[in-house]
Amino acid sequence: MLERLVEKMLKNKNKEEQRTKIGQIAGVLGLVSNVILFFGKIFIGLVANSVSIMADAVNSLSDMISSLLTLIGFKVAAKPADKEHPYGHERFEYISGLAVSFVIMIVGFQFLQTSFKKILEPESISFSTFVFIVLLASIFIKIWQGRMYRRLAKRIQSQTLQASGKDSLNDVFTTVTVLVSALIEHLTNWYIDGFIGFVLALYIIYTGIKMIKDFIDELLGSRPSEQEVRVMEARLSNYPSILGYHDLLVHNYGPQSNFASVHIEIDACWSLTYAHQIIDMIEKDFKENLDVELVCHLDPVAIHDDEYLRINKELTSILADLGEGLKMHDLRVKNENVLQFDLVIPEEISEDENQLLEKIRQLVVQRIGNYHLDVRLDHNYLL
């Protein structure tokens, strides 16, 4: 039923409009269901004189706020680029997701405090069939809500909706805990509600902190996934006319605003017009097939110069012999006595960089000739 509703509302809409509409659908469905849960739980909490049920109701109130933030987030993210924000507003989705994560963590601390108080001052609750039915119904509503968030999140690759889905799963555990502890207390007079709630609150706090970290990483600019990098590598490898590539950098300004840059190694004998045709083809390929705005930088390589090839081969051998996983690119022989290149330093390298450069200088003099080195250190964490 949800799929049919979504398909009907997405008819005749482009990709950007579809993403916004799906986010708004998720926000509205979440808001309506959380309003129902809040009023239902607060009512039976008052009827049963149960602190834990009322705490669960407060949790649903926070979910109402989260749903509103989701709606606002997708609406702002859908705004087109303007003079102040030339790359658009899609990163606001990360901000709204970060706000949802903080709400989750705050609720966790509130639930922790309530549970601790319940441990110190245990109270019996007035359990009834009506209370049982409402709590059971709320569990099924939250399961449906979590599945709804996850399905829509997967469809548009939204971390905000994924966060809301995780929050819904936490709420299922919370309400199940409340229900089970209420049943046990009713049947045995054992006051375990506070202890179970305390453990569950710690889990909710941990989830909130982890989600905060994930969204902060996105706002700061995190590394793309291994799969994304492999897909880009495969695309670049489809062009046998280029000699190689390096310095692939990927960043985004939202889930659908992906940018990248790469250095393309080409035959130095190519004409500028032909080289431009090749990189223009690559950039177009990335845009049409990966939806990535790629910018290519040309690195001409003198593959027909025997002396250059000798130096390149020997320098590559020197770096391999050092055994540190070192690589180099952009080799230039300048003024007949200067070797200029970029040295890629692996993340895990332990040796001091100055000492490492001195070793390379000594080996170059011994095995290549009396060259001075002009080295730029490159800490590239992709390629």
TrEMBL record:
PANTHER family in alphabetical order: MITOCHONDRIAL METAL TRANSPORTER 1-RELATED
Parts forming coiled coils: none
InterPro entries: Cation_efflux, Cation_efflux_CTD, Cation_efflux_CTD_sf, Cation_efflux_TM, Cation_efflux_TMD_sf, CDF_Transporter
Keywords: Membrane, Transmembrane, Transmembrane helix, Transport
Keyword Transcription among record annotations: no
Keyword tRNA processing applies: no
High-level lineage: Bacteria, Bacillati, Bacillota, Bacilli, Lactobacillales
Membrane spanning residue stretches: 21-47, 53-74, 94-112, 124-144, 190-209
Domain (Cation efflux protein cytoplasmic) ranges: 224-300
Protein's name in the database: Cation diffusion facilitator family transporter
Protein family per UniProt: Belongs to the cation diffusion facilitator (CDF) transporter (TC 2.A.4) family.
Pfam assignment, any one: Cation_efflux
Native organism: Tetragenococcus solitarius
Membrane topology designation: Multi-pass membrane protein
Domain Cation efflux protein transmembrane: 29-220
Compartment annotation: Membrane
Principal location: membrane
